[in-house]
TrEMBL record, chain A:
<protein>
    <recommendedName>
        <fullName>Iron-sulfur cluster assembly protein</fullName>
    </recommendedName>
</protein>
<feature type="domain" description="NIF system FeS cluster assembly NifU N-terminal">
    <location>
        <begin position="27"/>
        <end position="149"/>
    </location>
</feature>
<keyword id="KW-0496">Mitochondrion</keyword>
<comment type="function">
    <text>Scaffold protein for the de novo synthesis of iron-sulfur (Fe-S) clusters within mitochondria, which is required for maturation of both mitochondrial and cytoplasmic [2Fe-2S] and [4Fe-4S] proteins.</text>
</comment>
<keyword id="KW-0408">Iron</keyword>
<keyword id="KW-0479">Metal-binding</keyword>
<keyword id="KW-0411">Iron-sulfur</keyword>
<comment type="similarity">
    <text>Belongs to the NifU family.</text>
</comment>
<dbReference type="InterPro" id="IPR011339">
    <property type="entry name" value="ISCU"/>
</dbReference>
UniProtKB/TrEMBL annotation, chain B:
<protein>
    <submittedName>
        <fullName>Iron-sulfur cluster co-chaperone protein hscb</fullName>
    </submittedName>
</protein>
<dbReference type="InterPro" id="IPR001623">
    <property type="entry name" value="DnaJ_domain"/>
</dbReference>
<keyword id="KW-0143">Chaperone</keyword>
<dbReference type="Pfam" id="PF07743">
    <property type="entry name" value="HSCB_C"/>
</dbReference>
<dbReference type="InterPro" id="IPR004640">
    <property type="entry name" value="HscB"/>
</dbReference>
<dbReference type="InterPro" id="IPR036386">
    <property type="entry name" value="HscB_C_sf"/>
</dbReference>
<comment type="similarity">
    <text>Belongs to the HscB family.</text>
</comment>
<dbReference type="InterPro" id="IPR009073">
    <property type="entry name" value="HscB_oligo_C"/>
</dbReference>
<feature type="domain" description="J">
    <location>
        <begin position="121"/>
        <end position="193"/>
    </location>
</feature>
Length: 164, 279
């Protein structure tokens, strides 16, 4: 009887279960997934005409986020790669955004908002600036591609400071 | 002047809790006159007060007095202000009604701790010059001296009001010290004081960011000698940027100050990463 109680209590308070519960309280599962298994890490050759490269930073935490997109002749994003130095939420936001833009046209990708990213990853208010950063990274990459391909008519989201 | 009184129902005198004789009143006469009794403005007597001998009951009286005092914002704040015709509604002590000096922590008359001053900024709170290149040693000394005076541990037995004030003041001082201690946080705070908010700001400078990215990548892969060299270079750059930033703030050149603050933030972040890797 006593050994049974002891066994169940150790199972209840096993380290693995405790840490899992703690992690769930502080980070969403999807954020942990993107952090441990990030999708589409890397960078592309900036000199290629079909590649748009955007790089943004946040003053609040000193993070850097780089996003490269490969666009085909019809204005559809074939591939996207990212490189981010920052917190788990920033890495998850950029990893998610590379998956979101794949297969979208330039105009559709331009309309991705930070709230979509934040809702998908259940970001807390203190990490909202990470999703803003990801949104700006996409728009910066698209504007860079448009500068290289001015014959494709599109509406730029307003990134006047981004000079190549 | 109001003081805490301890009254003994059998005594005929009113003495304050320090034991000095303040006023000699025939309490028996006062008790008999309960119904028609009109207390003078400088002395507040209530039914329970006369019979009370417990200390905690006195702190309850004190709370009532405090609540009454903080009622109207536009009313004169104290008795001495009411009497003075040229009252400019200066701050008065909550306990003894004496006028307070500016940047007050304690009343000069009764030495009681005053409520926190919400209008002062971090520099005024810690008593340091309002410039970017302030003396860090002076800041540390000032912080320690202030906490020695206002830490809540010193006010446990001083009654509810002072203890509450000390908790708020101590928290404010801690927050101010943490912000002013770090260069990048101090720079961002000074920009905020000048109306430039940096919380939501996103940076698009490709040169700076590519450089930061490459350096961060290098930190991940490189060996110790390379990292130590990077550390020294980073330190040099940081000193240079801090000098320029101090100058920009003095000249009130806010756009330049903003640019240098951004650069400083990235240098500080790089320094943190290098320290983590090397130690």
């Amino acid at each position: 009887m006593i050994s049974l109680i002891f066994k169940t209590s150790t199972q209840l308070f096993s380290p693995k279960l405790v840490t899992q519960t703690l992690i769930k309280r502080f980070y969403d599962e999807k954020v942990i997934d993107h952090f441990e298994n990030p999708r589409n890490v890397g960078s592309m050759d900036k000199k290629k005409k079909s590649v748009g490269s955007g790089i943004v930073g946040s003053l609040a935490c000193g993070d850097v986020m780089r996003l490269d997109i490969d666009v085909d002749d019809e204005g559809v994003i074939k591939k996207a790669l990212f490189k981010t130095f920052g917190c788990g939420s920033a890495i998850a936001s950029s990893s998610l955004v590379t998956e979101m833009v794949k297969g979208k046209s330039i105009n559709e990708a331009m309309e991705i908002t930070n709230s979509e990213i934040a809702v998908e990853l259940s970001l807390p208010p203190v990490k909202m600036h990470c999703s803003m950063l990801a949104q700006d990274a996409v728009r910066s990459a698209i504007c860079n591609w448009k500068e290289k391909n001015p014959d494709h008519f599109c509406v730029c989201g307003g990134d006047e400071q981004n000079k190549n | 002047m109001l003081n805490l009184f301890l009254s003994n129902p059998t005594a005929n005198h009113l003495i304050n809790f320090q034991g000095t004789l303040l006023q000699s009143i025939d309490l028996n006469k006062v008790r008999n006159l309960k119904t028609n009794f009109q207390p003078p403005s400088s002395l507040i007597l209530t039914k329970c007060f006369l019979n009370c001998i417990k200390k905690d009951h006195h702190s309850l009286h004190h709370k009532h007095k405090l609540q009454n005092k903080n009622k109207g914002v536009n009313e004169p704040c104290c008795v001495s202000c009411e009497k003075r015709k040229d009252c400019k509604k200066k701050e008065c002590c909550w306990h003894c009604d004496q006028e307070l000096e500016s940047n007050f922590l304690f009343c000069s008359g009764c030495k009681k701790l005053q409520p926190p001053n919400e209008k002062s900024d971090y520099f005024e709170l810690l008593g340091v010059e309002k410039r970017f290149d302030l003396d860090i040693n002076k800041l540390n000394d000032s912080f320690k001296n202030l906490q020695k005076q206002v830490h809540p541990d010193k006010f446990h037995f001083h009654g509810g009001a002072e203890h509450r004030f000390s908790k708020k003041i101590s928290t404010n001082i801690n927050r101010a010290y943490k912000t002013l201690k770090k260069d990048n946080l101090r720079a961002k705070y000074m920009l905020e004081l000048n109306g430039i908010s940096s919380e939501q700001k996103i940076i698009h400078d490709p040169e700076l960011l590519m450089d930061a990215l490459e350096k961060r990548q290098l930190i991940e892969t490189a060996e110790s000698p390379v990292l130590e060299k990077m550390q020294k270079e980073n330190e040099k750059e940081k000193t240079e940027i801090k000098r320029k930033l101090a100058k920009a703030f003095l000249e009130k050149n806010l756009s330049e100050a903003e640019n240098y603050t951004i650069k400083l933030q990235y240098l500080v972040k790089l320094e943190e990463q290098l320290n983590d890797k090397l130690f």
